[in-house]
Queue: 3 jobs
Job 1
Amino acid sequence: MIKFFKILLSFYNKLVITSVGFNSDLFCRIDKRNKKSSINVGNDCLINGRLVCETEISSIDISNNVFIGGATILDCKDSIVIHENVLISYQCLIFDHDSHENISANRINDTYLFRNHLYDWDKIPSKPIIIKKNSWIGARSIITKGVTIGEGAIVAAGSVVTKDVDNYTLVAGNPAVFKKKLY
């Protein structure tokens, strides 16, 4: 019964995604809030957690051989790109936008607007996120808008990344800072 449920869930997820590659398993929640948005998953991926597309231009592109751990959330207004051989551990948050306005008076009606699909995403700042090949994002890390994680980089568990991470470096902390070069 459990195997049947997993197959059914995987089949359902493949229906709502734009494309899914060979030998990829998706055991995740998918929220495409606009039919024009796109989610593309490459070959040999294992995707858990939650993939969210907020707008009609939202695009989540996941390359080959990517692991995304359970309870991880990718929330996309514009673009999140994940290159091949990337590991994203459990309970990570990856948002390419600010989610809400900074002025409290402008947030009062957000619940109503979200519920009724009336939220004006044009007012919310966003910048694409790129996670380059062979990188590893540790558990419970947060990647904020506009960040590029370099090739072969490691983000230590629990880090909050607000700036680009160079290729083959280890960063850690809140905010994440350079710890050492990886060779």
Job 2
Amino acid sequence: MGLDAVELVMRTEDEFSIALSDDEAAAAVTVGDLYRIILAKLDVTPGCLTSKAFYTTRRALVNSLGVPRRSIRPSTRLSPLLPDETRRSQWQLIRHNIGLSVPELRINGDLKQDIYKRTFLFGSLLAILACIAGLSLGWHGLVVFPLTFVLWIALAIASMPIMERLAKPRLATELPADTAGELAQVVLSLNQGYFEPGSGTAERTNEDVWRRLVDIICDQLQIARDEVVPNARFVDDLGVS
């Protein structure tokens, strides 16, 4: 396939969240052939859900990061595409463009432990100060000390998630998945109903599919709509290389 054909196939895959094999792409000699293949693909079965989630995820990555579609594969690692310096802003853009539930960036495990240690030390300092104050009261300190210890434990436990939430906007840089394929699995698990048969992605009329396919062909090949008819041959009539 030439460059025009490859780009057309990839845009069709992204638009309808389907996968076209090389044999299927080669069999689409006319616009009508491609249209019938798309209709057959949209009869979604549960086994296709992962592919649908991947193409939805890939579209968001391409639009957000400005990278070529062909550079995003299930095995593509995300960290080189999202450097630490700009990761937070890029991730917010990806979450916005995908339009579905996507987890936030996480705080690195070592950094989270550091936050917990600092919280623990802060609580310990408060406990020590309270004990010193209690001992200055003489025998009353024997009552104050156990109460202070219990208060310290409660304060430390309560403070840890609060400190983590406060630090998250500035310190969260860890991706929820290593590869684009793993991210698609996460997106699928959080939005199962969206990708299942009978959801909004599957409820398309034949007329809507045709209209959207014509839109893709016209935009990709820069041709008039009246040229895109079912029996138009991609190579001979529409000039696809």
Job 3
Amino acid sequence: MNTALSVAPTVEPISTDEAKAHLRVDIGEDDTYIGALITAARQHAENVTRRQLVTATWLGYLDGFPATIMMPYAPLQSATINYVNTGGTDTLLAAAEYTVDTTGRIGLIYEAYGKTWPATRGFTNDVTITFLAGYGAAGSDVPEPLRHAIKMLVSHWYEQREPIVVGGAVSDVPIAVDALLFPYRVWGF
């Protein structure tokens, strides 16, 4: 499935004030830099876990309907499906025609009981899935271990601003960050 971010989250999982408290930074001169580190740390956590932390709207594109659609970002909240029918018309698929399963580790979409997927035009990106993924609209909705991993990564990058540290152990990402992210990783993508 090809994806494109449609509506990005409006907040980060942690605020600049939360990051500054973790860093024990009292000055305001580094607020923009710390904000950029938060965004980078969130993106790192999302890439490693294949999870959307704060709710966002995504578009997913398929050439046709597979038996089961595995959604690329968890946790899945909801989904709607449009498809191009055999006549070339963009059509909204009625929600009664499919089931959106948000209960598992990954989100799944499959035909509703007794239903079959409609025929498509048979061309690239004939199926468009608009879906919401994320733990919630507020940073506080994100599980605490993921929020703490972001704080730790922000702290690491704030203290180690260069890619090479002379006279110390080399670590791209602190092991503790990986340990906090690992249980949330979605496998299979």
